[in-house]
Amino acid sequence: MKPIVDVIWFMGQSNMQGQTERLTEDNAPIENAFEYRYFTDNLIPLKNPVGEFILKDLSKGWDVPKNVVADQIREWQIAHALGGSVSGNTNLVPKFCKHYTEITGKKVVAVHTAKGATVVKEWLPDDVVFKVAWKKMQKAVECVKRTYTIDKIYIAWLQGESDAIAGTCKETYMQQMIELKNNAKADFGVEKFGIIKVGRFTTTGRDQAIFDAQETLPLIDSDFLMLSRITEDLIDDPAYMNPYARGHYNSDGQEKIGTHAGTNLALMTLGKEPIYK
Fold first, then answer.
1. Nearest to 117 by CA among 159, 180, 176, 88
2. Does domain 4-269 have CATH number 3.40.50.1110?
3. CA distance linking residue 110 with residue 108, whole number of Å
4. Which of 98, 224, 251, 275 has its CA at 20 to 30 Å from residue 266's CA atom?
5. d(CA 199, CA 210)
6. Residue 96 near residue 102 (C-beta atoms within 8 A)
7. pLDDT at position 201
8. Using CA atoms, how far apart are residues 112 and 274, in angstroms rounded to an integer?
């Protein structure tokens, strides 16, 4: 009999991709946790950095250059469907999975599909981001099943800044999120769609529509979970923000988010109340 594993699908934009200032000093592989890699089609021990740079044609991409100029950013955005941790630095995924495995006692496989500056619409079937993310997840499930029996598949979602900038209204954001969740549920049997509430990004009040949408979704659709609201506090604390990239969490901030969200998903999976706000 194959051992049992849970799969957590990490999705979102730049703060899920990981745009921090350094690599954490505590970077030992997470016990009982693995990451799926698309280009080698295998599972590796989970540690920072996570994710892969995948072009829209599914070939290998490149890291976001340091000290970039606007033209380089546009070139990267146009070419890529998905990105990994920028500059090989810290991401929230290892801490998330560390607490999930320790609390549940289960093994876990992380599948990371994220890209900075994406709106929810890009994660729906008409867009190439959807197609590449879905392809990676499909290959991940096939790979995992060669060694393990999959018990549960969850999504951890951190996104919303770009929709706030674009002025997406609450109703549209909710409709698109429900469509995204339904697609993932139909295609992969996703058990729950966990939301890490996005932090404030604009200064025009447009964030509120996204905040309201993310708070409402778990109230009207039991497939959604609110994993953490910690970004509300971190966004105002310079100790947890990347000084070189406005609106992005630093290494400590990413690990704090991962700790909160991973702990809460584990507790809710076990039928217990979350302990973090």
1. 159
2. yes
3. 7
4. 251
5. 10
6. no
7. 82
8. 24
Residue pLDDT, tens place only, 25-44: 999 999 999 999 999 999 99
Name the residue among 143, 149, 188 with its Cα closest to residue 41: 143
- Contact call for residues 84 and 112 (beta carbons, < 8 A): yes
Angle among Cα 34, 37, 43 to the nearest 5 degrees reads: 35
CA–CA separation, 25 and 175 (whole Å): 41
Q: How far is CA 84 from CA 221, 262, 277, in A?
A: 30, 20, 28
The predicted pLDDT at position 68 comes to 60
pTM for the model: 0.97
The closest alpha carbon to 93, from 41, 34, 139, 150, belongs to: 34
- Residue-wise pLDDT for 197-245, tens only, equals 999 887 677 899 999 999 999 999 999 999 999 999 999 899 999 998 8
Residue numbers in the chain where pLDDT is lower than 70: 66-70, 203, 277
Within 10 Å of residue 91's Cβ, how many Cβ atoms? 33
Q: For residue 66, what are the contacts with CB-CB under 8 A and spacing of at least 6?
A: 87
Sequence-ordered list of residues with C-beta below 8 angstroms from that of 152, at least 6 positions apart, any chain = 6, 7, 191, 269
DSSP 187: H
Single-letter residue type at 189: G
Query: In this structure, what token pair is assigned to residue 64?
Result: 């976001």
Question: 67: exposed, middle or buried (C-beta count within 10 Å: 0-12, 13-18, 19+)?
Answer: exposed
**CA-to-CA distance for 252 and 232, rounded, in angstroms?**
15
Chain position carrying tokens 């290494």: 251
Buried-state track 243-256, b at ≥16 Cβ within 10 A, e below 16:
eebeebbbbbbbbb
Distance CA 143, CA 140 (A): 5
Domain ranges of the chain: 4-269
The answer to whether the beta carbons of residues 275 and 263 sit under 8 Å apart is: yes
